[in-house]
Design goal:
Rossmann fold, seven-stranded mixed β-sheet, 9 helices, 7 strands, binds S-adenosylmethionine
């Protein structure tokens, strides 16, 4: 089962590896630029209410704090007490309200947020349309829902044997993300959730030669493979060793597509939009 569906029931080893990976990738320039692109559509000079739903350790919430005007309202919400505790420790802010929410119905009024952000959350939820519909319920008419995620169906780590590469890629990704194809389904899911897609943007993060963004992913998998039993021990060790060695030798390769989707509720005057 996807460990991000129930972070609080994971081993200390697994949650430690997940926390480190979320924070490490948050420092990567390409990753930060993809966030900046959608932050550009959120006004900086007027008070807005923003919900970062599935905030994890708060990588995006902290960026939002820097971005928003001080009379704005910013909530980082998550199902995981352990991630929220880490988020509060990573941030000294009184501006961000960290809130634990149940899976399913959110404890917020209808149409109470100008912006709702789901940043690499949709690839993990058990019922994507239900999550989008609930995010849409708390979104104001005229507000914006921003959905950012990896197209994990495209994620790959270079390995000498192509068939083995495909097999291992799939096992690794399927072990940490319930919905590998969520970006490919997103236009359909948004419509099913009663939302209107306003636009989308696609990205690629690729690394050839040396790894950085993807090296920290490999380091995370080095811990998660045994902790979650993703691969047989010898195969897991061989894969990790290959990836680390290829980084040292300058022959590393890994890549994935990412997408941002911007959606709204039907029938409102739209706020700022561009991504
Ligand atoms: C891969 S992490 C992303 C964390 C953060 N948004 C980031 O990108 O750094 C996925 C997050 O979604 C949370 N999550 C999973 N299901 C959720 C749900 N139904 N409602 C809210 N958060 C959820 C997990 O606890 C986890 O913090």
């Amino acid at each position: 089962m996807d460990p991000y569906q129930s972070p609080d029931s994971q081993s200390d080893e697994a949650i430690g590896a997940m926390t480190t990976r979320l924070e490490d990738r948050g420092t990567n320039e390409d990753f930060q630029e993809m966030i900046s692109d959608y932050l550009f559509g959120i006004p900086q000079d007027e008070a807005v209410s923003v919900l970062d739903l599935g905030c994890g350790t708060g990588v995006v919430t902290r960026r939002l704090e820097e971005h928003l005007s001080q009379d704005s309202r910013l909530v980082g919400a998550d199902i995981s007490e352990r991630f929220l505790k880490a988020a509060a420790e990573f941030s000294e802010s009184d501006f961000i309200r960290w809130e634990r929410v149940p899976e399913g119905r959110l404890p917020y009024e209808d149409e109470s947020y100008d912006f709702v952000i789901l940043h690499t959350v949709m690839s993990h939820v058990p019922d994507p349309v239900a999550t989008l519909a609930e995010a849409g319920r708390v979104l104001k008419r005229g507000g914006r829902l921003i959905v950012f995620d990896a197209d994990y169906a495209s994620t790959t780590y270079g390995y000498p044997d192509f068939e083995k590469m495909r097999e291992i890629d799939h096992k690794l990704l399927a072990a940490v993300a319930a919905n590998l194809d969520v970006c490919r389904q997103m236009p359909r899911y948004l419509v099913a959730a009663g939302l209107v897609m306003e636009g989308h943007e696609g990205y690629l993060i690729s690394e050839a030669g040396e790894g950085d963004f993807w090296l920290s992913s490999v380091q995370g998998f080095a811990k998660l493979i045994p902790a979650l039993g993703i691969l047989p021990p010898k195969e897991g060790e061989a894969w990790v060793n290959h990836m680390l060695r290829s980084h040292d030798e300058g022959t590393f390769f890994a890549a994935s597509s990412y997408y941002t989707f911007v959606a709204s509720k039907a029938g409102g005057d739209l706020r700022q939009a561009e991504i």
